[in-house]
Specification:
The complex is a heterodimer. Chain A contains no helices and eleven strands. By secondary structure, chain A is an all-beta fold. In chain A, a hairpin with a 3-residue loop joins strand 5 and strand 6. Chain B is mainly β. In chain B, about 0% of the residues lie in helices and about 50% in strands. In chain B, strand 7 and strand 8 form a beta hairpin. The termini of chain B are far apart. The chains are: A mainly beta, B mainly beta. The interface between A and B is medium-sized, with 22 and 21 residues.
């Protein structure tokens, strides 16, 4: 199985300041079709997860441009340029390259 | 608008059975794989199973293999998760999830249902 490791576990942030979450996989997520199957999700309290970033760096439809994804192979980063109160919640990375599909343990973002 | 409506969750005794349903709308159902993902209380996300757009490909997490069966009805735009020999550790919210990529057996997820709670308890 591909193991996904997220850091930090918890991230207190000041509104208006940037934030960054790291996700590492123990195998390359680059597939033979040239795509990198890494996804970022946000789960707000009491809600279903929602897609933020697909294929490592593509913002999903309707997602604020404050969110950006970067990285390749095994090292990935989600950045929030200026955190807003509505960004609080649990952030998960997930690999879609190989079964079983696996998630990182989650990073809790909250406001200082 | 893409919608996935999960239902069927309830309280069941260990060893019991349950069928979850997922009704899909707002996209061409026949062209997309559908997954089930679960979340134990206060825990992270765990992929459970998928049924491919081809209606034939079906895969399971090791934790449920041999106990759960996934199926889909192309006429009703619905997916089902048949759960047998339920264990306490199967307790959690089960989400029906749409695969993002057209005509791929799996990739990532774009749309999630609201979730349905399964509680396995005596």
């Amino acid at each position: 199985d591909i193991v996904m490791t997220q850091t930090p576990l918890s991230l207190p942030v000041t509104p208006g300041q940037p934030a960054s979450i790291s996700c590492k996989s123990n195998q390359s997520l680059l597939y033979s079709d040239g795509k990198t199957y890494l996804y970022w999700y946000l789960q707000k309290a009491g809600q279903s997860p929602q897609l933020l970033i697909h294929e490592a760096s593509n913002r999903f439809s309707g997602v604020s441009d404050r969110f950006s994804g970067s990285g390749s192979e095994t090292d990935f980063t989600l950045k929030i340029s200026r955190v807003e109160a509505e960004d609080v919640g649990l952030y998960y990375c997930m690999q879609g390259k190989q079964l079983p599909l696996t998630f990182g343990g989650g990073t809790r973002v909250d406001i200082k | 608008e893409v919608q996935l409506v999960d239902s069927g969750g309830t309280v069941v005794q260990p060893g019991g059975s349950l069928r979850l349903s997922c009704a899909a709308s707002g996209f061409n159902f026949d062209d997309y794989t559908i997954h089930w993902v679960r979340q134990a209380p206060g825990k992270g996300l765990e992929w459970v199973s998928l049924i491919g757009w081809d209606t034939v490909s079906a895969y399971y997490a090791d934790s449920v293999k041999g106990r759960f069966t996934i199926s889909r009805d192309q006429n009703k735009d619905s997916v089902y998760l048949h759960m047998n020999s339920l264990r306490i550790e199967d307790t959690g919210v089960y989400y029906c999830v749409k695969d993002k990529t057209l005509l791929m057996t799996w990739s990532g997820f774009d749309y999630w249902g609201q979730g349905t709670l399964v509680t396995v308890s005596s």
